[in-house]
């Protein structure tokens, strides 16, 4: 039986890395990987997630892992935890804002 496990993927670029600047991360399982391209980084993340999930299956604790990671399990679906992107306001004086946007 195949199950679908929806995951959030955060993608960032590490400009200091020459060989694998693309970093991908899934917060639900706390798994990260990287690669020279976005596609390869995602492919490497899939492999890393599969290792984690297969290990949980072999240990007999896949359901516990998913529940502890915030997933909800129904009879036929695995539902991910809710994810939102919120905006937080922070007041900076001109000197502080130059840390982000130098003159």
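Sequence proposed for the structure above (103 residues):
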């Amino acid at each position: 039986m195949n199950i679908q496990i929806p995951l959030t993927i955060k993608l960032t670029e590490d400009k200091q890395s020459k060989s694998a600047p693309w970093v991908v991360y899934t917060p639900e399982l706390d798994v990260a990987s990287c690669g020279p391209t976005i596609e390869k980084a995602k492919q490497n993340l899939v492999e890393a997630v599969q290792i984690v999930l297969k290990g949980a299956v072999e240990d007999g604790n896949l359901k516990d892992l998913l529940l502890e990671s915030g997933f909800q399990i129904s009879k036929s679906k695995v539902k991910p935890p809710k994810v939102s992107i919120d905006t937080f306001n922070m007041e900076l004086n001109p000197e502080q804002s130059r840390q982000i946007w130098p003159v």
